[in-house]
Design a protein that fits this description.
Layout lengths: L4 E2 L1 H7 L1 H16 L8 E3 L15 H13 L7 E6 L16 E5 L2 H14 L3 H9 L10 E6 L5 E6 L10 E8 L3 H4 L6 E7 L6 E7 L5 E5 L5 E5 L2 H4 L6 H18 L6 E7 L4 E8 L16 E4 L3 H4 L6 H21 L11 E4 L2 E5 H12 L3 H8 L13 H40 L7 H16 L2 H8 L2 H14 L4 H8 L7 H17 L2 H8 L8 H4 L5 H13 L19 H10 L4 H21 L6 H45 L14 H8 L5 H19 L6 E4 L5 H4 L6 E3 L4 E3 L1 E4 L2 E8 L14 E4 L7 H4 L4 E4 L7 H9 L3 E3 L4 H4 L5 E5 L4 E4 L3
Helix pairs in contact: 1-2, 10-13, 10-15, 11-12, 13-24, 14-24, 14-25, 15-24, 16-17, 16-24, 17-23, 18-21, 18-22
């Protein structure tokens, strides 16, 4: 094949610069296992090398004809289609501007069609479009796609979101008889089908169908080319697609969108039905659709924040991670409002991936908190963390206040029952996860796929856990506000101190149990020698430790309780502690000699000092209410941590099942390592196991996404992504970055743990690399998750770049009574390893100490 001609794999590899947008996407789809007809691409560079008369160079035409005959297309009608480098991109579609020629027959007609496509890049409308979108007006390079013309009984377009309403949970299908030119050119009154995406199983269900008149259709002319003709009466009034057909092509289009971009699968997909099967002939990102939001936000920008998500999900997500989190995040953020009877806007995303990372739509979340319960946007931001600004909200009417009061009462009444039921719900979830982990996985791949589908659906439906995860901030916010009114400027710090030493959360208890393990190890001479020995094989602990070892027995019990957790546990690709206990054993060795009672004594002292301060500015009659709110806030935060632990138990079971399938796919010669399957969505992994997605195509999807994930990981993500306008107020927000005051030589962030401490700064980016951290050092971290808890047991204070008042680090720092400050973006780059600093958890201040 000539260097100027690309088959589908070559087009996918060449990229849009040479294959053009359309050719590149078709090549990718063919490589990723989508039903794309065979085809080839004339590279864009060839359009710059025409013959002097503007025709196709003879040697290039000869190569094209040779390739066409080699493929058996010599007697077939062809489609010759434009594929400009900028075409069909997320930025610009060029829809209808460049020429495509259908029903092309013979060498001369083919040469004429290629030149016609090339020339269309120079037409005034195309030039103006390029200028409008900032492309060079003289950049007229044009690749050309050549494909056999499919015998189109029907054709159409599927939008994997609804561009008319902007809803992401809807799929819109346009369908027409014959070729697609009448539809694309606006000459046809098409059939329309709307389908709803089901949350639990990611399936589809029809919700609306409209049958168009379809008076004209495009058909092939016998002498080449196409023409508009009257649609036969028996077809004009008949639905193009059956219910089953609509579901099939919608599912196929959604699979194509996810394969091309699982992070933002908003595509319009052109299809053809040949009477037997559906084919995809084009796919491009949706570049324009209605904005789906609340009316009050329609003139304000969308503010996407990393906030607390940067703490639990600091790195880019894999496709399987996102197939779970996309639904979980939405439910966590909306269930509390639904409980009060507030109608959350359906079909709008509260979480999205930007640069591979999870961002929350802060403007949306702020509005719902304000509109549902009257919570100030600034208070919502304090819980979210991050550096986004606040939205503008109108002054509420008396009617709105009354409605919010009623909702709040309903929420309190209904949430009390959910809180009372929480212990039973959590126990059921843990028991279910244990049962899943005990399942026999020796059955066939189809059986494993059925188990995976069942488990994923149950996790997506785990509303009882999502409620506990997402609704823990209401009582805490009320308490902070009440304390702040009595002790102005001290609400966050005093509340943090009051919560020190309360009933331990599952995460704090994990820390206490590690200290207890270290104490057992200190009294078990053989175990301590093994822990500190250079030849320790952590994976063989149960074999290498003596049968009568007290530490061996206690460590087995610890893994029974906490083995489902891990470093960076939010990612399914991370091995659980039950699989790889190295980190735990290192922590046990480092905690030998640590006194848990001294930690508890510090907590009692901090709490007592806070009560003393609060009593000085609070009347006696108000103190019982504060104590009640304090108990409730501690319960809420503890249940939030327990729900997270239960979700991680579910994740362990799903990981175990996915890894089993991954091992089998390795043995089948597809994947190199079992954990590569996490770069597939859960639905795609099931499709591979059931034989609906080819192994080499699945590997191509995983390889492409893994490469993209690594590129994302190598780039720094912005703290806030602004869409639908600009937000000038962000620049004025004091939370926009770590605020440095030169006069005091200090940084100010969010106080999340009370007290004051000084010590050497220890910059730790990964808890497994904390060997230099000594008792009393100040732990400086980008973010923390439960795997960091053992370090809290040694640290004298905590400083985090990210996190809000309800983040994991904040909850555990308050429990342990550690001075802590969060939401200091860039602080790791400001401080130096080993320098002495002071952390004032009361003021939210971090400052250098002079020698």
């Amino acid at each position: 094949m000539s260097a100027a001609l690309l088959d589908w794999p070559a087009a996918a590899e060449a990229g849009p610069a040479q294959a053009g947008g359309k050719g590149w996407q078709l090549g990718r789809m063919a490589t990723l296992g989508l039903p794309v007809p065979d085809g080839l691409v004339i590279a864009a560079a060839a359009s710059r090398e025409r013959a002097e008369d503007g025709s196709v160079p003879p040697e290039l035409l000869a190569s094209i004809l040779e390739e066409i005959h080699a493929r058996g297309w010599g007697e077939r009608a062809l489609a010759v289609r434009s594929s400009a480098p900028q075409e069909d991109s997320a930025r610009a579609s060029f829809a209808g501007l460049h020429r495509s020629c259908l029903n092309v027959r013979g060498a001369q007609a083919l040469a004429t069609a290629i030149v016609s496509v090339w020339d269309s890049a120079r037409e005034p409308a195309a030039v103006a479009y390029r200028e409008r979108f900032g492309f060079a007006a003289d950049d007229t390079a044009m690749a050309v796609v050549i494909m056999p013309l499919l015998p189109a009984v029907a054709s159409g377009v599927v939008f994997t979101c609804d561009p008319l309403s902007g809803r992401d949970d809807r799929v819109l299908i346009n369908a027409h008889w014959g070729l697609g030119e009448a539809l694309v050119g606006g000459h046809a009154d098409v059939d329309e089908y709307r389908l709803q995406v089901r949350r639990i199983d990611d399936g589809l269900e029809p919700i609306e169908q409209r049958i168009g008149a379809k008076r004209q259709q495009t058909r092939e002319r016998a002498d080449g080319g196409t023409e508009l003709a009257e649609t036969p009466r028996e077809l004009a009034q008949r639905a193009v697609l059956t219910a089953a057909g609509a579901l099939e092509i919608a599912a196929l289009a959604r699979d194509a969108a996810a394969a091309l971009d699982f992070a933002r699968p908003r595509f319009d997909v052109e299809w053809v039905w040949d009477g037997e099967r559906f084919w995809i002939v084009q796919a491009r990102p949706v570049t324009a659709s209605a904005r789906h939001t609340y009316p009050a936000l329609s003139q304000q920008p969308s503010l996407w924040t990393r906030g607390n998500t940067k703490e639990i999900l600091p790195e880019p997500l894999s496709a399987m991670d996102w197939s779970l989190y996309a639904i979980a995040a939405d439910r966590m953020l909306t269930l509390g409002y639904e409980l009060g009877g507030y109608r959350v806007l359906p079909g709008v995303a509260h979480a999205s991936l930007h640069h591979g990372r999870v961002y929350l739509e802060a403007s949306l979340i702020q509005w719902e908190g304000h509109d549902a319960y009257g919570i100030a946007p600034a208070a919502i931001n304090a819980l979210l963390g991050g550096s986004q600004g606040t939205i503008a909200v109108p002054a509420p009417s008396w009617r709105a206040r009354a409605q919010r009061g009623g909702r709040l009462l309903r929420f309190m009444r209904r949430s009390l029952k959910k809180r009372r039921d929480a212990a039973a719900d959590l126990a059921r979830a843990r028991e279910q996860a244990r049962a899943w982990c005990a399942q026999d996985l020796s059955q066939g791949n189809r059986g494993l796929a059925a188990l995976l589908r069942q488990q994923v659906a149950q996790v997506r439906a785990a509303d009882e856990l999502f409620f506990l995860q997402g609704s823990a901030g209401g009582t805490l916010t009320t308490l902070v506000d009440l304390v702040d009114k009595r002790c102005p400027g001290e609400g966050q710090a005093l509340t943090a101190a009051l919560m020190a030493g309360g009933e331990a959360s599952v995460t704090a208890q994990q820390g206490y149990d590690l200290i207890a393990l270290a104490q057992v190890a200190a009294g078990d001479e053989a175990a301590l020698a093994w822990l500190r020995g250079a030849g320790r094989d952590s994976g063989q602990w149960s074999v290498q430790l003596p049968q009568n070892s007290a530490f061996r027995r206690e460590f087995a019990g610890f893994l029974e309780r906490y083995g489902h957790r891990a470093v960076a546990e939010s990612y399914l690709r991370q091995p659980r502690w039950r699989e790889q206990p190295d980190y735990l054993l290192d922590m046990v060795a480092s905690l030998v000699g640590r006194d848990a009672e001294a930690l508890r004594q510090r907590q009692r002292e901090i709490s007592a000092q806070a009560w003393q301060r609060l009593s000085a500015c609070t009347p006696a009659w108000l103190r019982p209410l504060i104590r009640h709110l304090l108990r409730s806030a501690i319960v809420d935060c503890n249940q939030r941590e327990a729900a997270r632990s239960a979700l991680m138990a579910y994740f362990e079971a799903i990981r175990r099942l996915a890894m089993k399938l991954g091992e089998r796919l390795c043995s089948d010669g597809g994947f190199g390592q079992a954990d590569e399957v996490f770069d597939l969505t859960a639905e795609e992994l099931c499709a591979v196991a059931e034989g609906r997605l080819g192994l080499r195509h699945a590997k191509a999807r995983a390889d492409e996404r893994r490469a993209m994930r690594l590129r994302w990981a190598a780039t720094a993500e912005p703290e806030v992504v602004v869409e639908h306008g600009e937000f000038a107020a962000i620049a004025a927000q004091s939370t926009a970055r770590a605020v440095y005051e030169a006069e005091d030589g200090a940084w100010f962030g969010t106080p999340i743990g009370a007290g004051r401490a000084s010590g050497r700064a220890r910059i730790v980016r990964d808890p497994r690399e904390a060997g230099a951290l000594e008792t009393g050092d100040v732990l400086i971290a980008p973010s923390t998750d439960p795997a960091w808890t053992p370090l809290f047991l040694k640290a004298g204070a905590l400083v985090m770049e990210t996190g809000g008042y309800l983040s994991h680090g904040a909850i555990v720092a308050r429990e342990f009574g550690i001075p802590a400050v969060a939401n200091l973006p860039g602080i790791l780059g400001e401080l130096s390893e080993g320098e002495r600093i002071e952390v004032d958890g009361h003021r939210g201040r971090v400052r250098r100490l002079r020698d």
